[in-house]
Specification:
With about 210 residues, the protein is mainly α. The protein has helices spanning about 15-30, 40-45, 60-85, 90-115, 120-125, 130-145, 150-170, 175-195, 200-210. The longest helix has 27 residues, at about 90-115.
Length: about 210
Amino acid sequence: MGPGSGGAPARRLTREARREQLLDVAADLLRVRTGGGFTMEGLAVAAGVSKAVPYQSFENSDGVLVALYRREMLGLATAVAEAVAREATPADRLRAAVRAYFDVIIDRGAVLVPLFAPGSSIAELADGGAREGYGFVADLLRNAAGLGTRDARLAASLLIGTLNGAADALAHRVASRKAIEARVVEIVLLLTDTATTTPADTTALVASRVAHG
């Protein structure tokens, strides 16, 4: 509606509100993207703003995706932490963490998976090599399963790959959520058990899991 048509002028967004709007649009673009790269020009067009507007909030397209990654990962971390806090036993906490992870992946996977897919540099750019994602998982394993710092870091390094692979399997419908989630729970419990057992105990544990799998 033009300025002379009698309608009220559009309300100018605050800087923070504009930034969040652009991140919402970027998320929508990732959901529907069928090919090609993510560009600032494409973001401006999709948001219905001039080409200069995205640059007022972000340096470049990687900056947009890094900010989106951080926002999405904060939401994931919050959901997992809240789910874990409601449970009493280590095993139940770990199951709740996996269940919350899958809830978020079901809801936000179309956005998250491209951001941490193999070959994507966004996760590394987001934490500057600090491996914040690993740190969060290690802290979760320490608090939920009672692992020591060293064991938690080792288990986290192994588990991150499992979680990313599970998200990819879910996105490509390799199996049902129930089946994938059950396997991830098995792996989590195995990792947290073996991190605090002797090699002989580990062999027995693996044999038991295979025999009853």
